[in-house]
Amino acid sequence: HAALFGQGCHSPGMIKATYGTGSSIMMNIGGKFVASKNGLATSLAWGIGGKADYVLEGNINYTGAVITWLQEEIGLIDSPKEIQAAVAAANPDDTTILVPAFSGLGAPYWNESAKALICGMTRSTGRNELIKAAEECIAFQINDVIQAMKADSGLAIEQIRVDGGPTKDSYLMQFQSDISKVAITARREDELSAMGAAYLAGISLGSYNMEELFSSTERTCYSPAMATETRHNKLKNWREAVALIQNPGS
User: Fold this and answer.
1) CA atoms within 13 A on the CB side of 139
2) 57 and 29 in contact (C-beta within 8 Å)?
């Protein structure tokens, strides 16, 4: 909630996504409580000046932790710094999908018995393609939550404001923009939760002016550039893979 405030998501329809070990995605839905019908939670964002704002929220178990798994459990990388080069060298036509349900699936599926899955491999699938699939599954999972928010709220989504260490990864951020078909804006600061709490405290004490505080924020921006057919096929492959672990007997 503090990161949402620190990102300046103060109006309905504004979304922040925090990329960490897991991910927290929140959408400001304004002053009216909306119960989710698509696997999300609704909670209080904050109360300022006697006015409350609510959020739709989805939490994902494995996002940045997938990269840790690549390094520590299966040894495909020695450092996350290797990922950009591996992804660049991967076959762009490879269809490998990783669904990282290592501890079940979080929002919007909430299936604690789901098991992780790698599918769509071909004879030419190798190290680089597996690393790329691990990278892309982060964005696919966040997109699932974004689409659930869109369905629940009925609000237009103009951009997603992102924070956390993985937002320094330009390939991941561009892929997130492409697959969600929305602009991604990344703040240069990492600790948005601490900043949001400090901002709100300062505003409440009268030490900060809210408009001035958020008027000069520097962001790195990414815009959708993927061809429609490519995006459609990638999402189709992802959804089919998720369906396999949701319905293992089918």
Assistant:
1) 26
2) no
Radius of gyration of the chain (CA): 19
- The rounded distance, in Å, linking the Cα atoms of 52 and 250 is 45
- Structure-token match 């689409």, residue found: 147
Claim: this prediction has a pTM higher than 0.85 = yes
The helix/strand/coil state of 219 is strand
Q: Give the span between the Cα atoms of 60 and 44, in whole angstroms.
A: 19
Q: What is the pLDDT of residues 229-250, one digit of tens each?
A: 999 999 999 999 999 998 766 5
Amino acid identity at 168: K
The two tokens of residue 230 are 């490519």
pLDDT by residue (tens digit) across 92-134? Answer: 999 999 999 999 999 999 999 999 999 999 999 999 999 999 9
CB atoms within 10 A of CB 236: 10
Work out the end-to-end distance of the chain between its first and last CA atoms, rounded to an integer number of angstroms. 39
Residue 37 CA to residue 148 CA, distance in Å, equals 8
CA distance 60 to 105: 7
Q: How many CA atoms lie within 13 Å of 246's alpha carbon, on the beta-carbon side?
A: 11
List the beta strands (DSSP E) in 97-242: 97-99, 117-119, 159-163, 183-187, 219-222
